[in-house]
Amino acid sequence: MHPAPSVITFTTLSGLGFGLLFWLGIGLPAVTGWVAFTFFAIAYALAVGGLMASTFHLGHPERAIKAFSQWRSSWLSREGICAVAALVVMAAYGAGLVFFDARIAMLGWIGAALSLATVFTTSMIYAQMNTVPRWKTPLTPALLIAISLAGGALLAGQISAVLILIPIAAVLQVLWWARGDSAFAVSGTTLATATGLGDIGTVRAFEPPHTGTNYLLREMAYQVGRKHARKLRVIALALGYALPVALLLAPFSHALALVAVISHVAGILASRWLFFAEAEHVVGLYYGRR
Amino acid sequence: MTTLPKSTTRKLGLVIDLDTCVGCHACVVSCKGWNTENYGAPLSDQNPYGADPSGTFLNRVHSYEVQPLATSAMPHPAAQLIHFPKSCLHCQDAPCVTVCPTGASYKRVEDGIVLVNESDCIGCGLCAWACPYGAREMDQAEGVMKKCTLCVDRIYNENLPEIDRVPACVRTCPAGARHFGDFADPDSTVSRLTAERGGMDLMPEQGTGPVNKYLPPRPKDRLDQPKPDGEIDILAPFLTPVMEEPAGFLGWLDRALERI
């Protein structure tokens, strides 16, 4: 799949933002006034910034309002509704903390649940895809939620939670990669089933329909950079998971914590790039590619 | 509404005969022509005369080589070349419809055609991801998703002569490899063709329940093989050489030319 920068940025930043909103919602840290304002500003910048980035890949962003209508069947529609609901509820909760020094706990819990639901619905957009065997697993929502909670805890300064959640996310990440590497073969979809010609013999793509490229190949048969996948996995594990934990085990300082956050985000960006670039869509089979 | 209908009154679709298709791409051209001038946004091309041309097509013809396995009876089986037209299969359980966040994609209850309402499409591309067949392409000029409409603006069009009220690809196919009809009717041409020739689904394991069926190619003649016992080649006696050396006028001409 084509690793569109807008979608990578969106899923990474909004995951982090909604993760932070989750922790703020359950009152960890229990902040009020200007400190609360700063935390909420960071969370909203990430969550809303991510949502804005996601509209860059739309053909008609001016019609985005229509995307809230099909929650009965569409995970993308559900994601939009959860995101807006989470942002509205958390805004009311945040206003109480910032301006009135009052914590309406119930509102915070609802906002936290909606923030988590947003990350879950985002992950289900990918996990529902029968056509991309690497994504089609319950491990996908587990991984994206773990990353979001870990990153949110990191921004919320919940060091003990980070030290538990980042290793959990790292384990899920490794499991997700390990499963993903054989997912396409396990799915059973081959050029033989795609053409129905497998009963006659070995099928080989002889000639594509056209000499040039097309939307399908650009979008779904992206192959650039897969050769660097192993290196990028090591980089993602080191920056996204190992280094932040190491930095937080050292005596606490705000400078080190900032480095931990930057390193984590860089690692997750690399992991998210691989999430798309390594994912193989079955339509590539028709073109003799994966 | 992007929830799928439980059932549709009719199931309109295509039968594509892989035995007959000669790979001429006429269906590709007629599809592009009709659908550029009619329903919805035109099918644009990008850089059509440049070094890297590409464009939106609703129907494309692939070609596959199939190499049968060698057996003791057939130690050197000849490979078969199969031309393979591919357009939207108008699936009964269309995954492209349910993922649509805006309701632009829908499957019609009355005839099962999967359509895109282009004025509702935000161009998110998720339906193209959900389709295993590559039947949907985002138009790069218009920013909306394009797909086969089964020529919905032809098949019900009373301004056209009745013979033209079939999809453009079916009407144009010079080999008669494409058939249009109602699969819900067991006596329709498409239903009977499917039953008689073993019409098959593409990627059945994806669970999409495609309406369009593909007829498998028949085995080709095997000239390098001895005839099975009892089978008489009626042409053979007529094709044996009548003489080894030319005689008469041709014999004289042959000798005369040799001497020069």
TrEMBL record, chain A:
The keyword Nucleotidyltransferase does not apply. It comes from the Bacteria. InterPro entries: DmsC. One of its GO terms (molecular function) is dimethyl sulfoxide reductase activity. One of its GO terms (biological process) is anaerobic electron transport chain. The chain crosses the membrane at residues 7-28, 34-59, 80-100, 106-127, 139-155, 232-250, 256-275. Keywords: Membrane, Transmembrane, Transmembrane helix. The keyword Transmembrane helix applies. GO terms for cellular component: dimethyl sulfoxide reductase complex; plasma membrane. This is DMSO reductase anchor subunit. It comes from Roseovarius azorensis.
Automatic annotation (TrEMBL), chain B:
This is Fe-S-cluster-containing dehydrogenase component. Residues 199-229 are annotated as: Disordered. The lineage of its organism: Bacteria, Pseudomonadati, Pseudomonadota, Alphaproteobacteria, Rhodobacterales. Keywords: 4Fe-4S, Iron, Iron-sulfur, Metal-binding. It comes from the Bacteria. Residues 12-42, 79-111, 112-141 form the 4Fe-4S ferredoxin-type domain. Gene3D superfamilies: 3.30.70.20. InterPro entries: 4Fe4S_Fe-S-bd, 4Fe4S_Fe_S_CS, ET_IronSulfur_Cluster-Binding. Residues 218-229 have a biased composition (Basic and acidic residues). One of its GO terms (molecular function) is metal ion binding.
